[in-house]
Specification:
12 strands; five-stranded parallel sheet; Rossmann fold; alpha/beta
């Protein structure tokens, strides 16, 4: 009997889309599927470091840049919309060639809106059913829903009861028949978080997302905690990729973790509430919404990037 093949491809926009694919890949492998990882850039390298035994294919991808000026973030991203549209068209073309080569029975996309094919069952993983846009909100949402309707199924990585994603995962009538909540998906096993070891590091700073905001956060936090022992992962240009196993070790060996309020980071760390500080990328409405929700509704530690200084951060770290 021929093994069924699955193509799975996360968006290369930080590591969150790739990291939440890890438990899904593990489940599919356990069910006997042959998995081929498809992607580009940092997210592809991350999955390759976690699944060195699986086949992979490189395709073209989106290269988004953030603004160094916090108030100009919306404008900066707006100018890159043509690039996003072009990337979606490239995904369709690349996927067509991969289908001819591998003959898959299932296609799984994580937020790649062009990674589907009408002749092969296609699924998209996303919590951004009801995204928040600072301008033209209704028009952009309508377009997102049109793209999502191109897929046979929409998998939402959230638990309906816990509802980490809040209003972002509210499902419109047009998508209800094809939408499934698949539970919180993290590449880190909560059972592996330890409360019993003596931690060697004061702070673990997990950097992610496009530049220049990645390096900007590194500079701000490093200066604010200069007297403490800090470990930094995710620096731009680093030749080392920290896989899931290594990241668990670093988390367990650190008293506090500082990271962006990206949705996948929240899924990874929501179990260790007292040791995490979330910081939204300025101008990214989704991260700002999630950060405010974490703070006001769920009682997590959150600080605005503009408020980071030695006094404010050390107060949160209780040093």
């Amino acid at each position: 009997m021929k093994t069924k093949t699955v193509l799975i491809s996360p968006l290369n926009w930080g590591l969150g889309h790739a990291s939440r694919c890890i438990p899904i890949i593990n489940d599919l492998v356990q069910d006997g599927f042959e998995i081929i990882i498809v992607g580009n850039g940092e997210s592809l390298r991350f999955l390759q470091s976690n699944f060195s035994d699986l086949k992979s294919e490189k395709i073209s991808g989106l290269d988004i840049n953030y603004s160094n000026i916090d108030s100009a973030q919306t404008l900066k991203l707006g100018f890159q919309i043509p690039k996003i549209i072009k990337s979606i068209q490239s995904e369709k073309k690349d996927l067509k060639a991969l289908i001819e080569k591998h003959q898959p029975e299932l296609i799984v996309s994580d937020n790649r809106y062009g990674f589907y094919n009408s002749n092969v069952k296609s699924v998209i993983i996303t919590h951004q059913i009801n995204p928040i846009f600072p301008v033209l909100n209704k028009q952009f949402k309508r377009q997102i829903h049109l793209w999502l309707n191109c897929f046979d199924e929409v998998w939402i990585p959230d638990n309906e009861t816990i509802n980490l994603s809040g209003a972002l995962s509210v499902v419109p009538e047009s998508l209800k028949l094809k939408t499934n909540f698949i539970g919180i998906k993290s590449h880190l096993e909560p059972s592996e978080f330890s409360n019993e070891i003596e931690r060697q590091n004061d702070v673990l700073l997990i950097l992610s997302g496009p530049e220049p905001q990645r390096s900007k956060l590194k500079t701000l936090v490093s200066k604010a905690v200069s007297g403490l022992k800090i470990i930094i992962v995710g620096e731009s240009g680093s030749s080392q990729t920290v896989n899931s196993k290594k990241l668990i070790e670093l988390i367990n060996d650190s008293k506090f973790i500082i990271t962006r309020s990206g949705y996948s980071s929240i899924m990874d760390l929501f179990e260790i509430k007292d040791r995490v500080i979330f910081i939204a990328t300025p101008g990214l409405t989704e991260q700002e919404y999630l950060a405010e929700r974490l703070k006001t509704k769920l009682g997590y530690k959150v600080i605005a990037q503009s408020n980071i200084n030695e006094k404010s951060l050390n107060k949160m770290l209780r040093f």
